[in-house]
């Protein structure tokens, strides 16, 4: 099952397609989660080089007290920008974790979210046909 949403953004951006393919989270399904013949730019890595940006982390008590007590931390939430032949179609200007603190003692989820500010690049990547 895949969840899709198309946003009719004004030019120069144009339509945006958001997809959540609800991958199997099982640790032994890495091969099945891999995409082939595609290239995506990771918004977190673009704006925080070298910072792992864990979103599934024992810093969240819902994780450490739940069914994943041995989890050491990893990033399972991503914002990926499609690339063409010479780079990403949008620039990641900023990227941050969200829902990474409790509100009135309540955590939103057992993992944190990610939000990014994206902008049209000053030079649009070339598409070679």
What's the short story on this structure?
With 129 residues, this protein is mainly beta. The protein contains three helices and seven strands.
In percent, how helical is the residue content? 10-25%
Number of strands: 7
Rg measurement, Å: 17 Å
Along the chain, the helix and strand elements come as EEHEHHEEEE
Termini Cα gap: 31 Å
Low-confidence stretches: none
The structure class reads: mainly beta
Overall pLDDT metric: 83
Taking strands numbered 1, 2, ... along the chain, how are they ordered across the largest sheet? 3-4-5
**Helix segment count?**
3
Principal-axes shape call: globular
Strand content: 25-35%
Describe the biggest sheet? 3 strands, antiparallel
Jot down its keywords.
three-stranded antiparallel beta sheet, two-stranded antiparallel sheet, globular, 129 residues, 10% helix
Task: Describe what this molecule looks like in 3D.
With 129 residues, this protein is mainly beta. It has a domain at 37-119. The protein contains three helices and seven strands; from the N terminus they run ββαβααββββ. A three-stranded antiparallel beta sheet has the order 3-4-5. A two-stranded antiparallel ribbon has the order 1-2. The mean pLDDT is 83.
Annotate the secondary structure layout.
Layout: E1 3-8, E2 15-20, H1 30-33, E3 40-42, H2 43-47, H3 61-64, E4 80-84, E5 87-88, E6 91-98, E7 113-119
Antiparallel strand pairs: 1-2, 3-4, 4-5, 6-7
């Amino acid at each position: 099952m895949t969840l899709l949403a198309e946003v009719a953004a004004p030019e120069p951006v144009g339509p945006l397609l958001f997809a959540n393919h609800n991958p199997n989270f099982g640790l032994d399904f890495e091969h099945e989660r891999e995409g082939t013949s595609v290239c995506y730019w990771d918004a977190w890595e673009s704006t925080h080089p070298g910072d792992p940006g864990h979103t599934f982390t024992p810093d969240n008590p819902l994780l450490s007290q739940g069914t994943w007590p041995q989890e050491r931390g990893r990033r399972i939430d991503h914002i990926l920008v499609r690339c063409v032949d010479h780079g990403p179609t949008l620039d990641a200007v900023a990227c941050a974790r969200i829902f990474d603190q409790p509100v009135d003692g309540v955590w939103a989820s057992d993992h944190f979210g990610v939000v990014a500010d994206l902008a049209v690049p000053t030079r649009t990547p070339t598409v070679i046909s």
